[in-house]
Amino acid sequence: MHSTVQWLDKVAFEGTSESGHRIIMDGAPSYGGENRGARPMELILMGLGGCASFDIVTILKKSRQDITDVQCKLSAERADSVPAVFTKIHLSFIVTGKNIKEKQVAKAVELSAEKYCSASKMLTDGGVEITHDFKIIEVAE
């Protein structure tokens, strides 16, 4: 896998993925940024949410759960000193669908956390405490 990050100006950068997708990153105004894009650490947090959500969706679909939406809300704490690494991250999944089995969602969350999510594995191996919860929203047939 390859990516390129190109400095634009001040503290703004454009990242280009191997698949050709681009994203703007920018620092906070207190560091000279102009708020033109997400902060790099925000992207790491979103990447974790995307990785785990990918797992949840694919596992639930394979177990024939009739999901209509999956949302992952993340909250993180960072160290007070430099480098301000993540110390704790909590992922809260909201799974919407018809006749969703709680046991299947719990299993999907557990499999993502313990087996499939490479972003989660990388962060926990680096000392980040990651926790999860979920709720199910039933939609009418």
UniProtKB/TrEMBL annotation:
Pfam families: OsmC
The organism's place on the tree of life at top rank: Bacteria
Entry-linked InterPro entries: KH_dom-like_a/b, OsmC/Ohr_fam, OsmC/Ohrsf
Full protein name: Putative redox protein
